[in-house]
Amino acid sequence: MLDKVRIVLVNTTHPGNIGGAARAMKNMGLGQLYLVEPQEFPADRAVWRAAGAVDVLDRAIVVPTLDDAIAGCGLVVGASARDRRIPWPLLDPRQCGERVVSEAASHPVAIVFGREDRGLTNEELQKCTYHVHIPANAEYSSLNLAAAVQVISYEIRMAMLAAEHGAIPPLQEWDLPPARAEDVELYFQHLEQALTEIDFYDPANPRQTMTRLRRLYGRIRLDEMELSILRGVLTAMQNVAHKLRRARSDDRDG
Fold it and tell me: How many other C-beta atoms lie within 10 A of the C-beta of residue 21?
């Protein structure tokens, strides 16, 4: 089960934090580490901090984008240290661990951590199904990256141990698996294009339209067939819009 859990670190500045995260992961039985554009890796400082978890570093997968890191995942959880203007479905670490364990038996899961100084961008967080927030001391809430990975990894392990004793029910069986992260992202690109073509959405004045639509679909958790149906609906909308434009053009020419 834990082999399907990915810890994703985005644009990490200090290689020591990568090593510390690898050690935290191995302590809790996790081994899938993805690094999105780390500023320095491989690095001796990462090896020193990893201690006995160098094998996790050796297997780490370095990718250029977050989309590459979460490809194939049916659940993506982003670590967020602060409230956002548009709130997202939020989990605490314990709920996160339980959700990860209940879904990892069915499909890959990613937990995404951002940069040491500013975390994840709004755009990156919008690619996540849920956000997870560690309720640290409000007077000193800044957590080291490796410490944050340790907290979430611990809760995943505790949830796994509880699941082995039947304390956590498995993910409700569904007729089809959840849509993969990369397919959902393609859908949003298609949706934005279609809404623009029917003059509902103005890219020059976007407001928060696409962000709120992302949140809406995230709450629904589309499966593969539902996503395919919606892509078909968008294509049909575009075809009608194109026919209307051609008809208007013919009328003007006539």
Answer: 32
Q: Under DSSP, is residue 58 helix (H, G, I), strand (E, B) or coil?
A: helix
The size of the chain, in residues, is 254
Structure tokens at 214: 């992302």
131 and 79 Cβ atoms separated by less than 8 Å: yes
Beta bridge partners of 130: 77
The class level of CATH for 181-253 reads mainly alpha
CA distance 146 to 152: 10
d(CA 18, CA 22): 6
- By CB atoms closer than 10 A (0-12, 13-18, 19+), residue 109 is buried
Per CATH, domain 2-164 is 2.60.40.1180 = no
Residue ranges of the chain that CATH labels 1.10.8.590: 181-253
d(CA 126, CA 144): 23
Determine how many CB atoms are found less than 10 A away from the CB of residue 232: 10
The pTM is what?
A: 0.87
What are the tens digits of pLDDT across the range 180-226?
A: 999 999 999 999 999 999 999 999 998 899 999 999 998 888 999 99
